[in-house]
Amino acid sequence: MNNRALEKIKKCLRLAQSDNAGEAAAALRQAQKLMAKHGLTHSDLQLSEVQSQRAKSGAVKNPPVWIWKLMHTIASAFAVEHYNYSERSAETGYRWQCSAQFIGIGSAPEVASYAFSVLVRQLRKDRHTFLTSLPRYRSKSDKTRQADLFAEAWVEAVQEKVVAMAMKPEEKALVKRWKEREYGDDEIIKQKCRSHHRMFDSDDVQAIREGVEAGSKVDLYHGVGASEAPAMLEQSHTGV
């Protein structure tokens, strides 16, 4: 799709809202001519409002639960849809690399992507600090499990502060049409994650407590546009 043409058409349509009848009519005719010239329809204009932005999550093909929870938390905060996008390429030596993909209207996906990038970086740092604090005699699997529980509790503490913003029905419909156009019947990602199935012991409970404590230091509040994203997180956890 010709982005420059789309912008010109949108500009003409904005001018078509003018109170000056002659100016509005001329702008509308120009928009129609441009649409015919570039083979664009009203549906194309609607779908052009849908944006998609990705942020590397650092995860393997099947991310841990805490990555999923963080994606969901960010998506809820900014009224966007989220997916785990995984791919292999020559750049990564054909190893799986995952990104959090946010899809929505206007600048919302860009802001969500920025917020995710900042918070996943801080979460990984806090998780690593917790992991290295565990006694050496514990098995690698136990330490990984407890670090994952810490991270999940960290995200849940952040989630408690988030005021969810629901997508409007018409926005959901547009995003659905955009996904069908971009991906067809293909699944963007197999919705799987690395999870743990075991009764909690006292060490697990302690990991959860520490995760809640660390996550409660993070502040996440809404910005209006992508340019305000840094301000949105400036009062966050030290190091964010």
Features:
elongated, 2 domains, 3 strands, disordered C terminus, 240 residues, single chain, mainly alpha
Note the beta-strand portion. 5-15%
Mean pLDDT: 78
Morphology:
elongated
Tally of helical segments = 9
Helicity range of the residues?
A: 40-55%
Measured on Cα atoms, how large is the radius of gyration? 22 Å
Largest sheet: 3 strands, antiparallel
Structural class: mainly alpha
Order of helices and strands: HHHEHEEHHHHH
How are the strands of the largest sheet arranged?
Answer: 1-3-2
Span between N and C termini?
37 Å
Q: How many separate structural domains?
A: 2
Task: Give a topology summary.
Elements: H1 3-15, H2 21-38, H3 42-47, E1 50-56, H4 65-78, E2 81-87, E3 97-105, H5 108-133, H6 140-159, H7 169-183, H8 202-215, H9 229-232
Antiparallel strand pairs: 1-3, 2-3
Protein architecture, described:
This protein is mainly alpha-helical and 240 residues long. The chain folds into 2 domains: 3-47, no CATH class; 51-232, no CATH class. The protein has helices at 3-15, 21-38, 42-47, 65-78, 108-133, 140-159, 169-183, 202-215, 229-232, and strands at 50-56, 81-87, 97-105. The protein has a 3-stranded antiparallel sheet.
Short description:
This protein is mainly alpha-helical and 240 residues long.
